[in-house]
Specification:
Low-confidence stretches: 1-9, 12-17
Structural class: mainly alpha
Strand order of the largest sheet: 1-2
Number of domains: 2
Strand content: under 5%
Radius of gyration: 20 Å
Distance between the termini: 41 Å
Mean pLDDT: 88
Number of strands: 2
Shape: elongated
CATH topology of the largest domain: Four Helix Bundle (Hemerythrin (Met), subunit A)
Number of helices: 12
Order of helices and strands: HHHHEEHHHHHHHH
CATH class of the largest domain: Mainly Alpha
Length: 248
Amino acid sequence: MVRGRPAKSPDARASRKPLRIHGTIARDLGIHIVSGRYKPGEVLNGEIAASDRLHVSRTAYREALRMLAAKGLVESRPKTGTRVSAREKWHLLDPDVLSWIFEFEPDDDLVTSLFELRKIVEPEAARLAAERRTDAHIAIMAEALEGMEKYTLAVEEGRIADQNFHAALLDASGNPFLVTLTSGVGAAVAWTTIYKQRNTPLRRDPLPDHRRVFEAVAAGDPAGAHKAMSDLVDMALFDTTEIRRTAR
């Protein structure tokens, strides 16, 4: 990743790159797996039967299974066929897997766990960013805030700006291991936002929370940045919880 440059967001990739046939098959199978329709240990149809049923080539079906195997959702063994993997083997921060999880109604424990991860990672990244950020990081974060204000999180452009903000923050931490979490954290931010607005607009404007993080990072205030980001994640979880509660 180029220092000071935001990562491409899941929204951006989705809008620019239509799925090929094997990608469509992998998506459909992936949704069935993460939603629980296909259970861990269950054997998937053989490639001949599956390709006939789906009206696709055996090559496309095999490529789809390879994609799912790379994400930890299935494993293939000689003689026993392709089985759905146990959830602890799934690459849950893979942007595709996260998008499939939020395609429908994810379970409460998984949503809470996702925010717990963000609470562990992002406040500490913000603290480090306040100590190590460059002028380029500050410029990207400021531009992202402008995009969020201009477009709002109700549209793709605003969500991309939000993801760019979080990507720049992780990059500003200067920690290469934290930077490798950019795509996963970005996907988590994107899909929880999309999920929250699926049935109703956000009742609370999250922009002030982001501004407080930005101001602390720009001011070189590590403790302030840590607290501001911790508060941001807490409020994002509160928004998600409230929407799930009222939807029921």
